[in-house]
């Protein structure tokens, strides 16, 4: 298992240099059957990551560039009258693919956003009164640009909650960047990437994630983490049970990626910032603290052994 | 000025609930119109809250105040006294409700509620009364807490729970203060004369008075004897001596005692010169009496009695009297000699005149009869017997005697011949005096109900009047004419005699006495009475026991020592509660694996490599590996083992970990 994952990471690493940790998180998110939100500046490799993942996992890929005049039908598809057959024929939209890159999701109207989010939550779409199942696996990578918020429709907390993880890519380290600059344009290598997993294998891995053991002490640790966000001052509202489940599921995927069949506290700590940060916001004297610092506060305050 | 304050819904709810409860506590002795005003004020307040009505303006408030004061003056006349004062306070409380504009007004309303609720203890000291007051305090506390809670974050019942917790926490302090706090009586100088006529024996007797008492089952007093209770026919509870007769009403004469100078002989005092007039024989009977409030100073005892405790005196006419009117339940000790002779040697001419006094021009037929019999019988005893025989032959004992006119004794003796004890005692004394034998009426109670617990309760329907005649060489002799008409009344009890008669217990419609023929109700009633009795004895009667209790506890009852004890124990109690709060919850026992891992952490910490909060075992081991490469392997192994056992599938073997930790060499710095 670890071998497969390492190979996947190495393959995607050829197009997105020096971002192994983020690639692993994205894989963990996918294995945990969640959707991924990447928040970063333009040109950091968001699209490359999505594209690379689609390639190596052998998933069908489509991309929607969200704009303010995009309509739900542009995503979901539309029925068009076919004169030859004298009937309406459904033309599926880009949402009918296994890996969907929703670029700059905050640029479009809430109406269009919610059309996508419904598809993400339900795994199906309803067009013109007919419910159509989306392909499996169905994986959405959405990106948003945190820097220029003018003319955007920020996702409300309730919709942020639909994303299992939110990660940032960040600038590459100098060595990686030098490597990037001196070599061939990595994007040209995208075409060379080969599928390394069959869809069946992917589903198998997703199945295995559920079988990873979370011992009583680990659940206890996780529960204390979550309780801390609810009891301590400084949090606008604590993590929901859904948030707690998301952390556990990602931690399972993370331990599976690292070749273990049981979750250890380090797994929880590794995925906790990506899973919890976008579900928490500071208030009171900590207002304005960025959510990563908030999450670090939680991890530092709650010990793995409950001595209270 | 912040006119923006608006009482919250829940706070108002609790404030009004407490208000209703506190006013209901006083409903019995408040004028009706105050109750009506209270309801109107509450409705007004609710309408204000709903925004329907404005609060009353200043002119209206002044008008209300004037109306209240006028109403109180009209109601009571004399404003000095307990009831007018309570009524004044309650009306202030009612009006303050309409003046609640700021938060501090609400606090004032709460404080007033506390005070008004506590005042109820002046009127009723029974166990149920105390329970009601406690319940009211609970509601008032809830109102106070409600003022500090928002509607959104708390349920409606939450203030009540908080109040219950507060009250519960205050309980030890309350008990402590009850036990140690000195009772300061002198500071309390409001006259506690209640205006309402209480049922009970009064210091006058006219036909019909005692049959009125027969309508009530209210408790008069309870008696606990040191030994066995004497037979029923000896239980004559002497309370008053009535020597003056004006043709209709028998009343006390004050000259009896004044002529002799020292009229009271207090407990513990040197015996007065008239004490030697009493010849006490046989073994004394010791008992203690818990008397219900009568608002009168006289006490009841078996003749002939001596005070057995402080605050009680023997009067010149050989009754017991209390230092203050009995305004609350009170306990007193008595020593009685049932075998006695009083003033047997001689009766002074002055006193003889008093005890022979008769109004002129009343009851000519009775006077004629007495004089005729006097001529026939020279012996006083024989004359007494003749009169008693008369009663025995012709007369009927009834709770509902016919009404009598001006010459009441004549009409009773010769026409109606139906009467209650006061008719017999009155006419008997009249005949005796007309025949030249000094005689007087004695009022009090007769008999009592024996309880399984060994005490006796005497109720209002046991009220009785009998006679005392002075016979040469014998002194004052008690004679009960009623006993010759209806011996069952004296030997048995009045229940069996009059139980079926209309009017008996008419004033106590809800009394359980009515159902005493039903076994379990009677048992319940007796149990309840026993509970109330012990309450009276141990809680209300504690005032008298306090001194000796404190002396036993502290060795000395100087104010300094009491204050120190109060502060010491009270402070200690508060400190204990504070410490209890400070102590964190007991740590739950650690898992053996966790304990071993902590042992590892401690060992490494001593070497300067502490595990950080939140650091997992693997991350910790990796860090140690970097900082102390020589230990890397061992620490990593332990961590892995711990991780596997704690989170993975490995079986838990803490002893393996313990061994490994022990083998780990200490870090040298």
Relative strand content of chain B: 5-15%
Tell me what portion of residues of chain A adopts beta-strand conformation.
Answer: 5-15%
Distance from N terminus to C terminus of chain B (CA atoms, Å) equals: 68 Å
DSSP helical segment count of chain B? 24
In percent, how helical is the residue content of chain B? Answer: 40-55%
Q: Main β-sheet of chain B, in a few words?
A: 6 strands, antiparallel
Main sheet overview of chain A: 5 strands, parallel
Distance between the termini of chain A: 38 Å
| Largest sheet strand order of chain B | 11-14-8-2-20-19
Mean pLDDT of chain A: 87
Strand tally of chain A: 9
Q: What is the arithmetic mean of pLDDT of chain B?
A: 82
Order of helices and strands of chain A: HHEHEHEEEHEEEHEHHHHHHH
CATH fold title of the largest domain in chain A: Rossmann fold
Helix content of chain A: 40-55%
State the shape of chain B.
Answer: elongated
Q: What is the strand tally of chain B?
A: 22
Most extensive chain-chain interface? A-B, 22 and 23 residues
Q: What is the CATH homology-level superfamily of the largest domain in chain A?
A: P-loop containing nucleotide triphosphate hydrolases
